[in-house]
Specification:
The complex is a heterodimer of chains A (414) and B (175).
Chain A (H helix, E strand, L loop, with lengths): L27 H9 L4 H13 L1 H16 L14 H11 L13 H19 L11 E3 L19 H5 L4 E2 L2 E2 L5 H11 L3 E6 L4 H8 L5 H6 L4 E6 L17 E5 L5 E4 L6 H14 L8 H19 L3 H15 L3 H30 L4 H14 L6 H14 L4 E3 L7
Parallel strand pairs in A: 1-8, 4-5
Antiparallel strand pairs in A: 2-3, 4-6, 6-7
Chain B lengths: L4 H23 L2 H17 L10 H19 L20 H22 L3 H12 L4 H8 L3 H26 L2
Helix pairs in contact in B: 1-2, 1-3, 2-3, 3-6, 4-7, 5-7, 6-7
The chains are: A alpha/beta (414), B mainly alpha (175).
Chain lengths: 414, 175
Amino acid sequence: MRDDGRPDRDGEPMSDDATLDHDGDATVELVRAYVQGDLSDLAARRVDQRATEEPELGALIAAYSTAHAATAGLVDEPPACAVTFADLERRIALEASPSAGAGGGVLGWRVWRAAAAVLLAAAAAYGGWSLSRPAEVRTVTLRAIPADAVAVAASPLDDVAAALAAYDPVVDGQPNWLGDYEQGRAMAAATGRPVLLFIHHPTCPLCIDLRAKTFRDEGVLAALDDFVPVEMDVTTAPQELAPLLTAGWPYLGAMDGDGQEIVAFAGAQTATLLRDRLADALTRAPEFEQRGWAVTRALATRLQRANTARDRGDMNTAFEEYAALVADDASGPFALAAGIGLDRIAQSAHQRLDGLTRHAAAAAEDRESIEAQVNAAADAFAKTPYAVDFEALREAVRDTGRFPRLVTSSSGGQ
Amino acid sequence: MELDRTRFRELFEREHESVYRFLYRLTGNRADAEDLLQDAFVAVWRKRAQFEGRGSLAGYVRRTAYHLFLNKVTRQKRRRELAPQPGPMRTAPATAGEVAEREATTFLVDQVRRELASLPDTTREAFVLFRFEGLTAREIAEATDTPLKTIETRVRRATLELAQRLSGFAHLQAG
């Protein structure tokens, strides 16, 4: 920046002032070139000199400098133009009409014109088209619906949302044991709790004693609120759990949501000992972040509701539920699951649009059918971000009777 | 020389991008710009026998496009704002700082847009073409069938008015 506040000249000069056309008055191009640094040093100095002698020029330079800087945030490169010469030729061909010279001959042009009018009216009545409607194909720019198929990650919570919505780790004065280890891990990850894994045998006396006494203790049951209790019959447990048994029998241990053992405390134990060991396990759990089961059940219920709505095609309800979950659960597991749900809605929007395009191609002249399909899609996504595109389709079909040409913000069209 | 198909194609290939950009700045959106682009070239083709060779073919196309734009906005409400670019519909959660910065930028840009939109139509259009497309006053004058001096006056007036209203924002934009 110069001392007087005017912009520096940097880089090579882009033009010589001799090539600029100015007639002695302050021309706007000269001012623009000066402000943008497009003048040679010599030319810029001449402008500086003139500006001191002509206050009006100085004021205009200062004003353009301000306006130029202030509007910098609006400078955007226009999206690529998708119109090709082939498009133009098709349009010209569509609009070509018989020349005035045709229709002469034996019967005269008036008769031919009358006959043509009768034929056109008959065709319009048959096709349901207005004679005055031009063969317009509107172009709709897709702003929200993904142009390509959406890859959606699997959501581990989807399988356990229903179970979580009704789960309590303690029921009727005893642990509410889950029998599915994978389900237990997913639920543990969703609730920020470790798994308490109990591997036993139905006829083992130690195991029977644990169930009858230790696991009925009020203090132990209260401590179980911070765990997801999972029990496995050793005879049917997954083979991957076998190495755990080297810790002792019966096996008791705390596992994280990834299935990694946090700590093992196998063998017979009193309620007091188990309470202490459970408390100790929590201090070792790397991602322990307890939230109340009531909160978890509420979040799971909402996720389940959203998934159910989506599965039955109610995208509007599903979107509202997912969006609310993303906002409420911040970076929690339910927000992540809801985010995947939103991706699935995006996927559905893309598939729906794809279906509409295929239908329009197959039933090009069936306006009623196309209109019905487009209206149904617009209604189905009315409260989602994709409404803007479906409404644009609805409007185009309503106004022109034809399915529009689709373009996306990147080049190309459908 | 009458415009035959070969020359017409050459004209299109040579000029359609700049005419599209010209129309984009006027209309503010891609769809309208593309529609008017097609309308303009179709009109030039239809009236090719009437082109008298006054000025360049490129200028003729641009003049035609501009008149079609005027006709269109006479029927609709004249677009008074530059088109905002639609952003993504769902974004990852942002930090509080990122949200604040985003909101501040949006506010600044909206203020500038508002001031630009408050200019009289012809004044704003001349400034937009001059500032964002880099057209000369002579090119704007030819395209809009307006005297050169009138265009220069409009650009000058827009510059002075915007500078007065936006001097505070220019300072903020510069950081």
